[in-house]
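Design review, sub-item: ligand-bound model
Attendees: FS, YL, KQ
YL presented the inputs for the flavin-adenine dinucleotide complex:
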Amino acid sequence: MDFTLSTEETEVRDWVRTFVRREIMPLEPDMLRRERAGQPGLTLTELAELQAKAREAGFWGVQTPQEYGGMGLSAVMAALLEIELGRSFVPFRFGGAADNILFHANEEQKRRYLVPTIEGERHSCFAITEPGAGSDARNIRTSAYQDGDDWIITGEKTFITGGNEADFTMVFAVTDKQKGADGGVTCFLVDRDMGWKSEPIPTMGEWGPAALVFDHVRVPAENILGEVGHGFALAMQWIGRGRYLLPARALGACERLVEMAIEQAKTRVTFGEPIANRQAIQWMIADSAVEIEALRWLVLHAAWQVDAGLDSRQAQSMAKLYGGVKANEIVDRVLQIHGGMGYTRELPVERWYRELRLLRIYEGTDEIQRRTIARNLIKGHTSVRGTLG
Ligand SMILES: Cc1cc2nc3c(=O)[nH]c(=O)nc-3n(C[C@H](O)[C@H](O)[C@H](O)COP(=O)(O)OP(=O)(O)OC[C@H]3O[C@@H](n4cnc5c(N)ncnc54)[C@H](O)[C@@H]3O)c2cc1C
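KQ shared the predicted structure:
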């Protein structure tokens, strides 16, 4: 069994590591200051400038197929890069990306939605969650009925990431009540100027999602993504696109946080000795390091399964669950090691503490991941012996 990276993987990873150190981490103090003044930490223009810098070095569309100008990197490579990006709380992402389900668009839709999104000229959001349907997404109530060549959409979506900035949404609506999620949900590409409204939702994190309202919004039939009634499968494909990428980002954060904790433990003296000499502190560092290592291999193993074309759903759920739970335990320990300073807004620890909490909720809560994992085992789809059998 070979756990080493190839020369190419190491080179690509190291380039991103340097980019994060030189271009992204220096923005952190300013970003914290702005956020604390109630402003966005990083504006879309600043993000675009950083993305352009990375593009000059060839980093554009990390997982976008080469025929669309992307790098078409493997899932393992994408996970390695995400770990590096996670080391900073600056919300940088490489440009040239588009939601995976937009690649199912027809040629005309690709021209109007996919290509401009890849080029950063248009911004999308994915809207399935509703006030009455989150984990239970099969239970959505937003509906659409046909009126001549158009469809009329009515309903409310909530917690939509990017919903305040997006100029179009991929919204899921019931088009056949009898069939529901089994052939009665359709995905529509809906421009903001077709009439939907958004309202920011304040959260404990630094960026807020949006509530979207559709009040008889008229959408031409040509804006249906995929086929009528096949929307729920698309939604599941979107949600499943990167359950290894969210914990990969959290893993990078945990690495940096534990490095900060080690530094603090070596320099903070109490009762005449650095706290690093105390077993209570050492155990927190040791447990965190073991969990980081375990998470690394859960993430990379899930990504490897994606690349190998295997059914990776169990591995992805495990990585997402473990990442969410452990990242929260680790940031809590790191805050504890920093004492009162960890609780202040002078350090970024409390910011990470708030942000990492989300990982246990969105794109499938802890409980829903456990439900998936247990069901796969109980029904015999997977075994506790894992992929080695
Ligand atoms: C910041 C943020 C960004 C988001 N971005 C998006 C987005 O871009 N697009 C989008 O469509 N949605 C988005 N969401 C929605 C997110 O996916 C949902 O919040 C999530 O799926 C949970 O749904 P819920 O909030 O309705 O909780 P509920 O489903 O009401 O769950 C409440 C609690 O009950 C538990 N629970 C539910 N069912 C079961 C069960 N069967 N067994 C055991 N426990 C159960 C849950 O785990 C949870 O602890 C976002 C949410 C947040 C907070």
